[in-house]
């Protein structure tokens, strides 16, 4: 769901003074004087999607590097397993710390 809000940059005028004192169309609202923001559920959903996208991208890059590595160095099976395990553990660590930092930050701001 979308909500309408007066533009915080230009206070609804749609025009800002640049550093030379000249009028300039507000970039945040493109001169409309208001902006749309999404409700919390939607924000959460996009954040979640970003997280999923990040994970998928990470895994794709990780597997490409992994395949390149095993074909180039003919690594032993144990080492392959260790590398796979470290890769997934690293991804899990990054995701968990990201979520923890986010929740801490939001808790502090009461948002
Ligand atoms: Zn504006």
User: What is the overall silhouette?
Assistant: elongated
Biggest β-sheet strands, sense, barrel: 2 strands, antiparallel
Rounded to the nearest angstrom, the radius of gyration is 23 Å
The hetero compounds bound to this protein are:
zinc ion
Secondary-structure content class:
alpha+beta
Proportion of helical residues: 55-70%
SSE string, helices as H and strands as E: EEEEHH
Strand segment tally: 4
- Strand portion: 5-15%
Taking all residues together, what is the mean pLDDT? 81
How many angstroms does the end-to-end distance come to?
A: 17 Å
Total number of distinct structural domains: 2
Strand order of the largest sheet: 1-4
Unreliably modeled segments: none
| SS field, number of helical segments | 2
Can you offer a commentary on this structure?
The chain has helices at residues 40-73, 77-109, and strands at 2-6, 15-17, 23-25, 34-38. It is of the alpha+beta class. The strands form 2 sheets. A two-stranded antiparallel ribbon has the order 1-4. The longest helix has 34 residues, at 40-73. It is elongated, with a radius of gyration of 23 Å. Residues 7, 9-10, 14, 26, 28-29, 33 line the site of zinc ion.
Key terms for this structure?
single chain; 111 residues; alpha+beta; 2 domains; two-stranded antiparallel sheet; 14% strand; binds zinc ion
